[in-house]
């Protein structure tokens, strides 16, 4: 069962698009939560796709803002501050597809309890830290061991660091997205 209603999901997706549009127009956007449920402190990631390809992904694992503001902040960051990609342009905006992952609280997890498609992972060793969302191993067809190894690689660690003392934390995520965005005037 989903924690967020269809209406709440639509509100969050619309907010993500509106925030990107506002940044493109160099305008401020009101990010006041429309309900107490969307005002709860939650971690979340916003992922942008264009033509089926990753175009940006930024999130907060630890909840520091109300969810509604977190969505706004991560949407703007994914569009304009993901170091892997140039900033989104006005011409690209209509082609963006948004996916939101609202995270549960983090909890320590043993490797044998990691469930593909259910758990996201954080691997930490010293100052190195890597995170992969629950949908990633499904997209790549990974089994549990490959998922653990790739999360270690994401942290810049050897792929077997999870067997040698790296700390594992798991979380679940409610993931939802869309097709083409609703038209918004940018120019």
3D structure, described in words:
This protein has 187 residues and is of the alpha+beta class. The chain folds into 2 domains: 6-104 and 173-177, Glycoprotein, Type 4 Pilin (2-Layer Sandwich); 107-171, Hypothetical protein ph0010, domain 2 (Dna Ligase, domain 1). Helices cover 27% and strands 25% of the residues. The protein contains 4 helices and 8 strands. It has helices at 6-25, 67-80, 135-140, 144-154; strands at 44-50, 53-60, 96-103, 107-108, 120-125, 128-132, 167-171, 173-177. The protein has a 4-stranded antiparallel sheet, covered by helices on one side. Strands 4-7-5-6 form a 4-stranded antiparallel sheet. A hairpin with a 2-residue loop joins β1 (44-50) and β2. α1 packs across α2. The radius of gyration is 17 Å and the shape is globular. The protein starts with 5 loop residues before the first helix and ends in a 10-residue tail after the last strand. The model is unreliable at 180-187 (pLDDT under 50).
């Amino acid at each position: 069962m989903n924690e967020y209603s269809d209406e709440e999901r639509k509100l969050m997706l619309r907010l993500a698009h509106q925030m990107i549009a506002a940044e493109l127009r160099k305008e401020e956007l009101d990010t006041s939560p429309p309900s107490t449920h969307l005002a709860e402190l939650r971690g979340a990631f916003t992922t942008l796709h264009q033509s089926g390809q990753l175009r940006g992904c930024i999130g907060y694992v630890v909840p520091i803002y109300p969810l509604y503001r977190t969505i706004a902040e991560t949407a703007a960051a994914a569009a304009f501050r993901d170091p892997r990609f140039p900033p989104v342009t006005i011409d690209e905006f209509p082609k963006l597809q948004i996916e939101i992952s609202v995270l549960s609280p983090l909890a320590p997890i043993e490797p044998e309890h990691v469930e593909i498609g259910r758990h996201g992972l954080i691997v930490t060793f010293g100052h190195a830290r890597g995170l992969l969302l629950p949908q990633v191993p499904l997209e790549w067809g990974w089994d549990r061991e490959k998922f653990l190894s790739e999360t270690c690689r994401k942290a810049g660690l050897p792929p077997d660091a999870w067997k040698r003392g790296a700390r594992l934390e798991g979380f679940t995520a409610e993931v939802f997205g869309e097709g083409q965005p609703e038209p918004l005037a940018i120019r």
